[in-house]
Amino acid sequence: MRSALSRPARFAALAAVAALALTACSSGDDTPAPAATSSDTSSASAAAFPITLKNTFGETTIDKQPERVASIAWGNQDVPIALGVVPVGFAKANYGDDDGDGVLPWAFDALTALGATGDKLPKLFDETDGVDFEGVNDTTPDVVLAAQSGLTKEDWTTLSQIAPTVSFPTVAWGTNWRDMALVDGEAIGKKAEAQAKIGEIEKQIEAALATRPDIASKTFVYTAADASDKSKLWIYTGVDARVQYVEDFGMTVAPSVASFTELSGFGGTISSENADKLSDADILVTYGDDTTLAWLQKDPLLGKIPAVKNGAVVIVPDATPFAASTSGPTILSIPWGLDQYLDLFEAAAKKVK
Known about the structure:
Helix content: 25-40%
Family: Belongs to the bacterial solute-binding protein 8 family.
InterPro entries: ABC_transptr_periplasmic_BD, Bact_iron-sidero_bind
Protein name: Iron-siderophore ABC transporter substrate-binding protein
Order of helices and strands: HHEEEHEHEHEHEHHEEHEEEHHEHH
Largest sheet: 6 strands, mixed
Number of strands: 13
Structural class: alpha/beta
Shape: globular
Organism: Cellulomonas rhizosphaerae
Radius of gyration: 21 Å
Number of helices: 13
Domain Fe/B12 periplasmic-binding: 68-349
Strand content: 15-25%
CATH topology of the largest domain: Rossmann fold
Oligomer: single chain
């Protein structure tokens, strides 16, 4: 599966990526203003350097606009790609890669539009056992993007010896899609372009929600349920980027989530014996397949959750590109899967009692 978009929408998205440099400003009268050239944009971006960005581990100073951009962890590569910059290397997809090429479909589509597939595909870093320091070093980058990541201070220090490394601002795996775009975008001299892209996506979300009115104001809990071990339930907190994305739909995290002392950082596990405390969640979100709702409802503990009992459950097909697009939302992945995601929430919202 290479795209969740219809063919016309897909080509429109590709055209938007390819045309990033052709921006223009409208004047107060009917006379069109001269279009900004790519050299104008590059000059303005370069003039912003040097810059210093703060993160959890310290400061990152980038002396001049990077030409060779590398990224690690989930999703960071989507920022430069969406802004028309082909990375020299990025993390190989290790979740949701349905065809085994190491590149998720929205990134592949955008790279295709930029002429960067086949022999020109960026180097893919193997992060099966952690950060691929050797792979990153081999690409001789000018900057390493990791605004959304789980870097340790040791990781950041090691990467910083290779090139200036932009890490997460506050919490590991807690950088939402907007902040990822702004932090990574600023690091490559394209913060203004990143902000414009954010504005476009916010309008897309607003328009999509207007046709799905039942979603607004619902409460939710985002979980991961395991049919092989029904004694516990993983819950993602409001720190997690996927949860913050759902909040963009006008929904709020069920207040009961904050009452679980077992949770810390972006999430944690609770005993299924305490699942009935989630009675204030209108909708439960979890990963699974066509069998998931049935076994949840039959379970003597998890089946007591009102959202489960009512069938007000959003089941994200596990280990698929769609699951990857919603678990680590970016300025590239959101447009790709937005309508499918909201359809699931609208269907669940209609079952809330």
